[in-house]
Design brief:
Distance between the termini: 58 Å
Strand content: 15-25%
Shape: globular
Strand order of the largest sheet: 14-13-15-16-23-22-21-18-19
Radius of gyration: 28 Å
Helix content: 25-40%
Number of strands: 33
């Protein structure tokens, strides 16, 4: 049988792309006859070496050489022409081999569709061994205007240079991931038609589609996200459940596809909207939109009628801004839950309604009570498709053991025992976790899935606590949080927020107190935020708490970017004076132009003011760069660049773009504009306060970012203008994090590197054990410290106490059992 399959895959790879990439789970085995067929399939971009057919560690593969030695291009890339529909899949999987990933800053994969692309980064979790990479559609960003996952015409794989050293990557076994009836049971219908009609709707469509998908995936339930354009009833027939996460309208064909699916016995879970053509099919009637601002706090929580929805939390907090009136058609359904206001009083409107073949929630699913909201999601889905309860409970029990990189409970327990040694609190927490897990296993075996899941959060919590209690602290580290809000942790005064940091063993905070166009203290240089009048000088408040509890304060400025709170009159003045950035096509960006001398003076003066007026420990640059490679091309930049190179440009901006004759001079000049400010601030601030520390949050890959965004932080370290540097190494992958830290220490030389750990960033989410894993990486590299993003409500209440149990415990709590 294996021989037959292998011959079939070999035959597929030999066909033209439009035929070879037919609808199958595996669509390319990368098993090519010879180098010629491999090179015909994988076309190198300019500067990249040609592909070859290979056999690597027993696997047929395509080999893609990364020829970084003696070359200057920023990435090695190859394109594979295809004709494939991925709309009915969650994403793709492929097998990946790299003997040495150290020369690579990051790997990327792109999917061309129409005139745009879907793109994301990935990192293999093994070196010099085959591993499987899974790419989910919801992890991809869009570039340009892609035409949909059903029209993928090119797959591009890229390795971004970090070192001038050769390596290679090998690929095999491209296949769909999340296929209905194979490894997915739920179809979440993405409102592509609405997204294309409105950019504002596109953001909402992405947000709520991803929220539902993440909820199901957290329970180990596979799902796909087909779009509503061109969907057919036959494509939905493998789904146990179809979900409408946020679908303001349906194309005619999608409505008929859903009716066909329902006629065949399908089940529907809908949020907020239910198009008229489906209401009669499920026995529901929707009315007008009701806004919460008509009575503030009107829709603040969902309360279930006892026993109405097995397995649902009794109360789910969700502060919704509006809902939809809805009711079951006479005798067709029942109300399962009602809305409560912020005082706990009934709002007089149903929140969840069930009929024989559908469940409707009268608003979208939000994320302000995540655990309970996800449990509610599973309960609603489980009412329609009971087998999902079994899947969810089984996956939840398995996840109890996924701590500290372990894959199962016994491996995790062994790891905790090794690390804990004689620490009695850790072993006691582990024993309690085992007892709770055993109870969950017994309930699951008895078919009591909801009851089994009730045990798993407590078991997982105790397992996490056991792991955290087993960790060791390291004295003398710089341990800090970035705090993006100038007002600190929401609902908490600065005194309490800093006290919590100190109690958990953290030594510093980097609070964001000023932007390019606004300050959150009584500045005489920048416009002052309106809130300061009512809420006070935020630097002074934070600094007083830091002095009280012995925590360093390094004031964080977002440079150049004027910020969302910038006064309109300031922004308009900058526009009139030609001080805002323009793209090469003339599109305005609300960032100050770094080449404008008045903007440079403003950046320097604002930071000098902070250092002069407040006894802070440090000044911290952020956004000390251009937004991207396409800025700034304002008229002032042209005039100042021409003066710098003593030449007149005949073609603007073409001379400075791509292969233009002035390209290298342009890149050098751009970097100099940023560096001028770093040097001036460093020198002038130290002249005022010699012991103050100057630092910067920087992009992680200096080799490409010095050109891409004009951020030459290696030079800043070499010249001594920074006392420490904080690369924003936000990733879920410990291996990628490790690779980045190793490179950054080399680039920074004698300047300390305190890597940024993305606990709650836009590109990574880390629970306590994974945060500890990345702290361990910084210790292996002897960085002497780290910075975590971001200090908010969840981090203060959930993460900090767990880290303080062991890995960052202050000296007084590191003694004894």
């Amino acid at each position: 049988m294996k021989t037959v399959v292998r011959l079939l895959l070999f035959a597929l790879a030999s066909l033209p792309p439009s035929l070879a990439w037919a609808d199958a789970v595996t669509f390319d085995a990368c098993d090519y006859r010879d180098d010629a067929t491999a090179q015909a399939a994988w076309r190198p971009m300019k500067g990249s070496a040609p592909a070859t057919a290979a056999r690597v560690a027993g696997r047929a593969a395509v080999r893609l050489p990364c020829n970084f030695a003696g070359t200057a291009f920023e990435r090695a890339s190859w394109d594979r022409a295809v004709a494939i529909d991925l709309s009915a899949a969650r994403g793709i999987r492929f097998d990946f081999f790299c003997p040495d990933a150290a020369p690579v800053g990051q790997f990327s994969i792109y999917f061309q569709s129409g005139s745009g692309w879907y793109a994301t980064t990935f990192q293999p979790e093994a070196t010099n061994a085959w591993c499987t990479v899974t790419i989910n559609q919801n992890a991809c960003r869009t570039e340009g205007q892609p035409a949909g996952w059903n029209r993928i015409s090119t797959i591009r794989v890229s390795a971004w240079r970090a070192k001038n050293t050769d390596t290679e990557i090998c690929l095999a076994g491209f296949r769909r991931a999340g296929v209905l009836g194979v490894d997915a049971d739920i179809a979440i219908l993405r409102a592509e038609s609405s997204a294309r009609a409105s950019p504002a709707e596109a953001r909402s469509v992405d947000q709520f589609t991803h929220a539902i998908a993440a909820g199901f995936e957290s329970f180990g339930i596979g799902c796909v996200t087909p779009n509503d354009i061109g969907i057919t009833g036959s494509q939905l027939q493998g789904a146990k459940l179809v979900v409408l996460p946020y679908n303001p309208a349906l194309p005619a064909g999608a409505g008929e596809a859903l009716r066909e699916y329902l006629r065949a016995g399908g089940r529907l879970l809908a949020f907020y909207h239910l198009p008229p053509e489906l209401q009669s099919a499920v026995g529901l009637e929707l009315g007008r939109q009701l806004k919460a601002d008509e009575r503030p706090g009107r829709f603040a929580a969902i309360r279930f009628t006892p026993g109405a929805l097995p397995g649902a939390p009794p109360l789910v907090k969700q502060r919704s801004w509006n809902i939809r009136e809805a009711k079951p058609v006479s005798g067709a359904g029942r109300i399962l839950a009602e809305w409560l206001d912020d005082q706990g009083r009934p709002a007089g409107q149903p929140a969840v309604i069930a009929t024989a073949n559908a469940v409707l929630m009268t608003h979208v699913l939000l994320d302000d009570d995540r655990a309970n909201q996800r449990r509610m999601l599973l309960a609603m889905a489980g009412l329609l498709a009971p087998d999902l309860w079994r899947q969810g409970a089984t996956a939840a029990i398995e996840k109890i053991g996924e701590v500290g990189g372990s894959r199962n409970f016994e491996d995790a327990a062994a790891l905790i025992r090794r690390q804990a040694g004689s620490r009695e609190r850790a072993t006691a927490a582990l024993a309690e976790a085992r007892t709770l897990r055993d109870s969950a296993l017994a309930l699951n075996a008895a078919g009591k899935f909801a009851e089994a899941m009730d045990q798993t959060p407590r078991a997982a919590q105790r397992m996490m606590q056991a792991f955290c209690l087993a960790q060791s602290s390291r004295p003398g580290e710089f341990r800090a949080f970035w705090c993006h809000s100038a007002f600190g942790v929401d609902g908490m005064e600065w005194d309490e927020a800093i006290k919590r940091l100190a109690e958990a063993g953290f030594t510093a905070i980097l609070p964001n107190m000023l932007w390019g166009g606004v300050a959150f203290y009584p500045s005489k240089v920048l416009p002052v935020a309106a809130d300061v009048g009512a809420r006070g000088d935020q630097i002074a408040k934070c600094l007083a708490a830091c002095k009280k509890y012995g925590v360093q304060m390094h004031v964080w400025k977002v440079n150049w970017n004027t910020g969302r709170r910038v006064p309109a009159e300031f922004l308009e003045r900058m526009r009139r004076e030609g001080r805002l950035q323009l793209s090469s096509k003339g599109r305005e960006e609300p960032w100050l132009c770094p080449s404008h001398p008045d903007n440079q003076a403003l950046e320097i003066a604002s930071l000098l003011e902070v250092a002069r007026d407040y006894d802070v420990d440090g000044i911290h640059f952020d956004y000390i760069r251009y937004p991207d490679g396409d800025h700034c091309f304002c008229p002032g930049c042209r005039a100042r660049f021409e003066k710098a190179i003593a030449a007149e440009l005949t073609r603007w901006p073409e001379d400075a773009l791509g292969t233009g004759p002035r390209r290298q001079q342009w890149l050098d000049w751009r970097r100099s504009n940023i560096t001028t400010v770093v040097r001036a601030v460093s020198e002038q601030v130290r002249a005022v306060k010699p012991k103050i520390k100057i630092s910067a949050a920087v992009f992680r890959n200096w080799t490409t970012d010095r050109d891409g965004v004009g951020q030459d932080w290696k030079l800043w370290c070499e010249r001594g203008w920074l006392d420490f540097v904080c690369p924003m190494d936000y990733t879920n992958s410990d291996r990628q994090f490790d690779n980045w830290v190793a490179m950054q220490k080399e680039w920074a030389g004698r300047t300390p590197v305190y890597p940024g750990i993305g606990v709650s960033s836009s590109s990574s989410r880390l629970p306590a054990d994974r945060t500890i894993g990345q702290i361990a990486v910084t210790r292996r590299h002897d960085t002497g410290g780290f910075v975590i993003f971001n200090y908010g409500v969840a981090e203060s209440r959930e993460l900090l106490p767990l880290l303080g149990l062991g890995v960052t415990a202050p000296p007084a709590t590191t003694l004894g059992p």
